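Researcher: Re-running this chain for the archive, since the previous output was lost when a drive failed. Same request as before.
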Amino acid sequence: MNPRIRWVGVVLVFCFGLLFLQLNNIQIRQASALSKSSLGTKTGTATIYLSRGAIVSADDKILAYSTKVKGGYLRVYPAATATDFGQITGFFDVVSDNITLGIEAEYNQYLSQHESSGLLAQHEATDDVMLTIPSTLQADAASIVGNRAGAEIVALNPQNGDVLAMYGYPSYNPNTLSSFNSGSVLKAYNALAKQNPEPFLNLASAVPHQPGSTFKTIDTAAIYDHDPSLASKSWPFNIKISIKGAAAPFQNYGKTNCGGPLAEILAQSCDTAYAEVGLALGAPTVVGEAESFGWCEGVAGVCRGGGRRPPLDLPPSEVAGATIAPESQLAATPPYLAYSAIGQFNDSASALSMALVAAGLADNGKIMEPHIMSRIIDSDGNVIKTYKPHVWKQATSAATAEKVRALMLGVTSTAAKGTAAGVFTNLQTEGIEIAAKTGTAEVFPLASGNCSTYDWLIAIAPAGAGQTPKAVVAAEVPSPEGSATCAEGTGATVAGPLVDQMLTDVLESGQ
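Model: Regenerated structure tokens:
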């Protein structure tokens, strides 16, 4: 026998021998110890001292890590990014060994200590979770929203579903809750609860409000999908209209007089015309089109045919489904259908849900599944999981999406007298066309007899003919209680500057 072959054979036999010994070591000699190990059942105080993997932004900024202190490992959220990302990272409650919301909860199985078996030995390991959100864009989102209570903003890449920024005010600093001292944690929680009854919710995905006239994009898609003849109709000019069964006339926001062809009534957001659009389409069509964009029929969180909350990779309590009133209720009560067609009555959506509507119109009718995790890396630097973009819903046809997007260009056009004309002047000066839709949902009357509004704007860019949209942004800002006419704030004036800046930052970032 060739000496080299003999030597290789000896080495192989030796390796198999080592493998056999290690298998017996694990399965027999260490079986009892392993079954009792904290790696198997993590109860009591067994896990609160263990290290966890890091959470890292898309631009490689560490957002969460574990550090060794007296008594064990403590979770740290670097000060520069802690509050910006608080609603996304969540926090790890070491006192009760309880993962509280966010990425810490959603990817706990990777971040926490778990068994990793090599050829000859087992060892404890943690994995790092890399996000799609750059720290720069998240910081921009936080700065743009500022201290506007209840404001939300979301930026997405419509081509792959990447969340590029997601922020709502108020956020929180998870470091205040990272302590071995239960009294300190409780004190921090109580302080946050005074500021916000539900301080840990991701406002941009979990807190829906009436979307106002941004819903008219869904009505418009329904026209092309179900009754194209309405697209060529000229709608009557009116300040107000009477609707059978209504206690009072249905009138335009600010008592304006509007009407005309579809391009004009969308650009100018004509409420009386879109009320008539809703009545002409009928409840089954309006509700069905909303469902095709991922909305739920019925009360919040209860959807006909099963749950349809956006499949964002956060715990379910942090992602609310967009809702519309039941078809039967709208069919039986025409005034309700009219108000639902302009995004009021029982319509409800988060900034995330409205960003997904815009994303569907941006990407040939497809809504890509939104996601925050980009990839997961093990302790040896190997990529063990990568997010693969895929379609969540085919909301409408490519032809319809293109037509609605083209009409949305009128919203930002001065020539068309669009409601968002002048909002995106800087981008438009650079030759970037913006498709958008404003929304101003009135909350009226309040106990004082006055009202407040939810002011919205959704936008797609670039949106010119033949261009591939790279970004969508949705923002919602609740306006404080105003006058009895409820006409002091609009989606363009209140939410417009936020969307303009966020859209500019995303496009300049090249994400």
